[in-house]
Amino acid sequence: xxxxxxxxxxxxxxIAVYSCKKDTGTEVITIPPEPLSDVVGVNAEQIEVFLKTHxxxxxxxxxxxxxxxxxIKIDTLIEGNSKKSLFExxxxxxxxVSSDYFGIxxxxxxxxxxxxxxxxxxxxxxxxxxxxxxxxxxxxxxxGRVFDQSSNYLWQYLPLTIRGYYDGISQLKSGTNxxxxxxxxxxxxxxxxxxxxxxxxxxxxxxxxxxxxxxxNLVFTLELGNYVPDTDYDNDGIPxxxxxxxxxxxxxxxxxDEAEEVRAYTPYTANHIDADDDNDGIPTRFEITINEDGxxxxxxxxxxxxxxxxxxx
Length: 313
Ligand SMILES: [Ca+2]
Ligand SMILES: [Ca+2]
Ligand SMILES: [Ca+2]
Ligand SMILES: [Ca+2]
Description:
Bound molecules: calcium ion
Order of helices and strands: HEEHEHEHEEEEEHEEEEHEE
Number of domains: 2
CATH architecture of the largest domain: Roll
Distance between the termini: 35 Å
Largest sheet: 7 strands, antiparallel
CATH class of the largest domain: Alpha Beta
């Protein structure tokens, strides 16, 4: 599995979001992240202004020239121009964000809306938010400054990226037809390509990294070449998507043996990256049954309603 800068960024942010420290020389003051309800309106307004004042090269995608590179180019919308704005072309999608997710005590659940445009419909199918995907991406700020991009396809396991990013990729369809270029690289002639604009709470929120400031909205152009259906990242026999026990589309908040991990000072290891989910010393793989047709049964030997692989007794 290739590592990418995005994965790296995420790790940094998870540490950064919990406390933002300012050294005043004599004492260290911890500034807690702002409540979600204070940020949601500001982000929404910034995004709306951006969408209404920008467009992209959608005509080129509609009737592509033979040498068209299928790259999304965002452009300022000139007044009086008949081109459609991103706002007219985009589909909104709303996700609930819990303050717990960013380690904020305010006990809030706030809806954040992101916007996406499918520039090219892929010929294949869509991954789940828990699959490994072969992607090309470019990340930029609303002002157009690029903070990260990949020039070649790379593999990314979606749960280790940021939420707007993985939810966005799961809206795309993959390609099916690989073309070998003369220079040894390859491309997909029918991959899904999209543009995504999402608020800070689906990104790094109060974390800052490089040119990405606190509470910064992010713009991604993404191409989905391929993906591994039913990715089983920890190789425990259960596809990662089925390890989202509370079904909220977030894989990092399902950790059956969290108490034992805390007690043993071992790192927080959510079920999708934990091969022994209940920490009983028996690998999950040996506490489930994979049937001949590929389906999985979850035996519950003592009949207490908790399947063996999540049950310590
Ligand atoms: Ca979850
Ligand atoms: Ca665990
Ligand atoms: Ca597991
Ligand atoms: Ca076990």
